[in-house]
Amino acid sequence: MSTQLDKRFGFLVADVDRLCGNRFDALAKSSLDLTRAQCRVLAYLSHYGEVNQARLAGLLEVAPISAGRLLDRMEESGWIKRHDDPDDRRARQVRMTAKAEKALDRARRVGDKVTAEALVGLSKQESEQLIALLQRVRGNLSRIVDR
């Protein structure tokens, strides 16, 4: 039986993610003081604002203890600040610092370069259509998974 991985949606999405991530790492080595995982933390904080640490672990798809270690390192380096959640004494809230906001602009430029490389050969209309289709797919899955 042929699996035809190159035609399987889940495989293609995961493989594009892997390739984009590897390219991001290669480009970021010379221009960022952040790892890809740390950039993802900052991207989520930029998008959602101050976030509960447990929710952030879920968004990153890592165990809470792993997220805690990552956030410990980021806090020690001045990228984030954490404080107790006033509504839940067991929870911690996470926010970006001004230092992180400046670094996030550089990380976005790296991401933009990866995107430009990935979309070579696609017209502007095709690129926009691809993004729109992926947003619809994400919306479909979000309605099911994030209930």
Question: How would you characterize this protein structure?
Answer:
- With 147 residues, the protein is mainly α.
- Helices cover 66% and strands 12% of the residues.
- It is built from 6 helices and 3 strands.
- The protein has helices at 9-28, 36-48, 53-60, 64-76, 98-118, 124-145, and strands at residues 51-52, 80-85, 88-96.
- Strands 1-3-2 form a 3-stranded antiparallel sheet.
Mean pLDDT: 91
Give the N-terminus to C-terminus distance in angstroms.
36 Å
Low-confidence stretches: none
Largest sheet: 3 strands, antiparallel
Question: What CATH first level would be assigned?
Answer: Mainly Alpha
Calculate Rg over CA atoms: 17 Å
CATH-level-4 superfamily name: Winged helix-like DNA-binding domain superfamily/Winged helix DNA-binding domain
CATH architecture descriptor name: Orthogonal Bundle
CATH topology: Arc Repressor Mutant, subunit A
